């Protein structure tokens, strides 16, 4: 039985192991961190433990009726300080949702309502709120809030400047809470509550604040009979609890009335501008197309107050005290502020991103005293987490105090993890650290939507305070976290500070006296009207303007860039050829090779045709098959007058490397076309993939009289055009839905194409093959040992009724999404809210993203409307965030970033090949991780990210089933090997397609279609023909389809020829795939002979090629028959060449042929289609 996580010590009666919550700290989880996850010695129980609740019981609710919850789920709680657990929770977000379903949580919801942070992910109110609210706090909107934030910061400084030098200010936390509450309400709702000014004047705060604090304190327990009445609560007949409850009910009514007044004032246009969150909830639609429910507005406003002011205020208090305790850190921060402001007394919106060390100080305080003490996730079903058993309903709690003081990630050169050292957040230190070792804002879809707002506000405030005041700690004061009455986040207990005017600062008068702040001039906010609206679109437009190409003379020479491409690489290269040609003054466009034949554009009028194509096991790509047939039918000399150049894209692991490009090059020459440049080639398995193409294109352009691409500083026009493809669309709102899942997106695309076809005359032209493939049944593990380190899943998908025509041996082509953790990382880095609506314009798809939607022609795209998705959908399905970016991608990124500092750093990285290889390639740094290194400083749009990034590639899987004789011919099965390893950055990489397909639940959907092979990797038309199949590992997949087909033929009464299968695995008891099915095929006669090579069972490794040689007599007997066919599927690098050599040896030994004749025999079988390979790069 799979074990659970260990207990943190022996349980005791009643308490269980909850005694770890007790200790010197007032925050219980701080005590757990100190005793269970100490930072000064090895963890006594490991980095993840299972707390036994003893006599307590945490009732689990909100699971489907009839669900049987394991008893442990309500009596155990998993605690973790392990970043790897966090990473797994992120990658399996659907299996570990955040639920708001425990009794103590339900009690809080009585006051907070069903708001964004106090509700289940399954709640419709959460889904609509999570779609609308984050739009108000993306990086662009945050920058537009700079005037309000600075105004409230200025009010704070003015009130404190009224104190005399050396004054001890009590209640610092109340001051900070007033300031942050004022700022968030002013920015998000358009109301200035003037709590800072009220506090300075000795007046009570706005009623909103008092009622908010009492209500929240009552439901969280920080306000109780003891805090309110003291000993008086024991007086008989006093009725302390009844009085508390009555006060709470009145407080709640007051809050509901206040929120209702805010809503009505906003609705009437009396309050709030276009940035108002309330206005957004009233007017904007969620991604589902629905408005936020009116009854949910109260909950969302209260939740916004909880997250929007108290947490930031608390962290600012900790930061100020820690800087007072560490004068050397304070001095560095002050120096940075002065260097950035250059004599000015207030920061503006453009200054804030430059305050790197100030940000480090704030982040370090967040690390030590995170406002969120625990981040919970619940297991949606019985499952494994890090190989340990977790039961349905069981709660996993990430203890941020423990996570953030884990000595493995926070100690070492930086000293005691509990010490304050902002250098922990220096860019280089962040790059080296596990990406999930720090989560003060939460993580995944439930992460804080206001993190960018809080960071911007905190840096603005700290810069102003540090410039004006010298902070001094109160002698004898010890910083301690506490939950004060009415608070939900740890706050510095009884925080007081002694303040002086900063020497040489704006408030320092003669003799060091404090001079009150004079009325300030309006802040210099260098944010244009475009920024106040939608800066991302404005930025994109500016970039497009800057890079517009000069018009081309209609009489200029013609260059057509034609491509043959399945994955999109050749298509992208062709687009670059066309763009460079246009810059050189040529009339140029792109098309597939098949389209060129269909259009009749290969005319002999002196035009230049540049062919960029890949090859597939020696065959042309799908969109070049008709071109090959046309070309081979042309007579010698028939294309005289046509000029051409060919570039081949391939993988040297295939023995057919560059075969089709060479055929095209030779055939065009045979037909009389003039070769203007030598055949070029690049190896996608080599280190110089991009640069080889660049060098060839440079040479080609020089040959035809154009300027080489490196002489142009701007990016190619195809990329510029792509900037318009995806644009933020926050302002439009309206009735157009925003699609947020792949199923609804696929359906929307299908409908849009159908409407476009109808508008074009209803020909059906261009209705593409890509559809949503539904998971028909739960995937099953094919390997026998779960702990063997290998996993292969048998996946069953259902094809659409109109696209279910396939044969055993065909491929399924699927598109898998990016890891959710990398998506969240990338969006955070570019400052885009996950649920921000993004408009996709089909009319401007000019680059490789056409490969993600094959078969749709230009005319059809021009008739399709713009479609809106969430930013998460775009980042999930368009750019490849997992791949290690090439130097070209990083160069493009450098060209687009707004920060000169980041641009210089990226260009230095690109310019140093060794540095790039060591720090990016060798470490396996994904594009998302690279973006994260510069998070907050990039200033690029989501359109720019999609334009510069490599697109997600299609994944190809050999189908392991046959429709012949199947009960449901729409069902198709795959054998999917799971990919899982740790990169050089410490990130656990799970293969995109393999993990996605393996993890999909029944009813889940993946985009894809059947890809009928251009070759003949199918069973022979003559059932009596002998077949030899070689398929080690998952290479057995198509063979399983062949055997199903043969089973059907047997049941139909057909006489079959012999069938021999060579299968390979490591050990029979570990990864012998389909053992039962293969035994059944032997018994039925569908399979004549089965030979299994186990490479790890004996003292000597045995592979399939060894067994071919061992059974050479039987193999040769079959090979001698003219109709015999050989099928090989699997690894192209080692297995396929070794198997070919094995067959050559058999021909030499058994057939008496010389080495060259044996080699020619196998080559002749390949040429005649009797020796067929379906191989891939390992």
TrEMBL record:
Domain of life the protein comes from: Eukaryota
InterPro entries in the cross-refs: CysJ-like_FAD-binding, Cyt_P450, Cyt_P450_CS, Cyt_P450_sf, FAD-bd_FR_type, Flavdoxin-like, Flavodoxin/NO_synth, Flavoprot_Pyr_Nucl_cyt_Rdtase
Span of domain FAD-binding FR-type: 768-1020
Record's keyword terms, sorted: Coiled coil, FAD, Flavoprotein, FMN, NADP, Oxidoreductase, Transport
Coiled coil location: 241-268
EC number in record: 1.6.2.4
GO cellular component: cytosol
PROSITE patterns: CYTOCHROME_P450, FAD_FR, FLAVODOXIN_LIKE
A GO MF term: oxidoreductase activity, acting on paired donors, with incorporation or reduction of molecular oxygen
SUPFAM superfamilies xrefs: Cytochrome P450 (SSF48264), Ferredoxin reductase-like, C-terminal NADP-linked domain (SSF52343), Flavoproteins (SSF52218), Riboflavin synthase domain-like (SSF63380)
Flavodoxin-like domain span: 559-701
Membership in a protein family: In the N-terminal section; belongs to the cytochrome P450 family.
Cross-referenced PANTHER family: NADPH--CYTOCHROME P450 REDUCTASE (PTHR19384:SF17), NITRIC OXIDE SYNTHASE-RELATED (PTHR19384)
Protein name stated in the entry: NADPH--hemoprotein reductase
